[in-house]
């Protein structure tokens, strides 16, 4: 069997689907004709060599976390967030999201970059931005704008502003061009700089959407990879209004199928997030980690002093 050439940029879900669509086991899982556990067992059996079909080991295993019905999955999540007191309502313009998804799929330019924002995560952020109706939103680690694009309709509808913050001028330029091309640049400021330093300058933030990543070889372990979430939020949390929301991506902390690969990854994630979780416990009174493909955390800034005592 020859190694298959698969696209290496764009949405990871498209790369995964392209590589696995030839396998009946994957097709059956995506049609809900086989269980998640059964499909995960097939992936773990070694029947598929990810390198031979153009995937990484991470991408192959992430396929086991894909929801069968993204809209229904988000509806359940919104219900859970409402029951937990993180949001006040659950209705959002779902059909308008479908139209935006079609528009973004056709018109968003990824160039050499890959995004691990999965479709149900895009829908979730779209819904949360409409429900929160934020006046000021910040995106530390905005990359090339694919995460931000889903929040922009809700931000614009609320008459709000958004600040994309990324240290890489190339990705920031691409984010600008994409949002402008999609007509979603109203009220957007593009900040090329350090998210920690910029966070200290902020005031009166209603929504923070976090997806930053530090260098994997950073000398300071607090700035390494996803451990950077803690110093960013240590700088940014004081700017969040009481009751404001933090939405954090890559909070993959739950093993949906006893997958050995994810057991190892979750252990590494928990080590990276130790200081971040301590910060959340001190300053955010309602917290939920959601079983999206890459894991999404939603946290409410305490409404009064005393952290978890707020209500």
Number of helices: 13
Helix content: 40-55%
Structural class: alpha/beta
The largest β sheet comes out as:
7 strands, mixed
Q: Tell me the series of helices and strands, N- to C-terminal.
A: EHHHHHHEHEHEHEHEHEHHEE
**How many beta-strand elements?**
9
* Residue runs with pLDDT of under 50 for 5 or more positions: 1-5, 306-311
Rg: 19 Å
Terminal CA distance reads: 59 Å
Instruction: Give the overall average pLDDT.
Output: 95
Shape: globular
**Strands across the major sheet, in which order?**
5-4-3-6-7-9-8
Summed up:
The chain is of the alpha/beta class and 311 residues long. Helices cover 42% and strands 16% of the residues. A 7-stranded mixed β-sheet has the order 5-4-3-6-7-9-8. Strands 1-2 form a two-stranded parallel sheet.
Describe this structure in words.
The structure is a single chain. By secondary structure, the protein is of the alpha/beta class. The protein contains 13 helices and nine strands. The protein has helices at 12-20, 24-30, 36-44, 57-62, 70-83, 94-107, 119-132, 148-157, 169-181, 195-199, 229-236, 260-272, 274-283, and strands at 10-11, 114-115, 136-140, 161-166, 188-192, 205-210, 240-249, 284-290, 296-301. The longest helix has 14 residues, at 70-83. Residues 1-5 and 306-311 have low confidence and may be disordered.
Can you tag this structure with a few keywords?
globular, two-stranded parallel ribbon, alpha/beta, 13 helices
What's the SSE blueprint?
Elements lengths: L9 E2 H9 L3 H7 L5 H9 L12 H6 L7 H14 L10 H14 L6 E2 L3 H14 L3 E5 L7 H10 L3 E6 L2 H13 L6 E5 L2 H5 L5 E6 L18 H8 L3 E10 L10 H13 L1 H10 E7 L5 E6 L10
Parallel strand pairs: 1-2, 3-4, 3-6, 4-5, 6-7
Antiparallel strand pairs: 7-9, 8-9
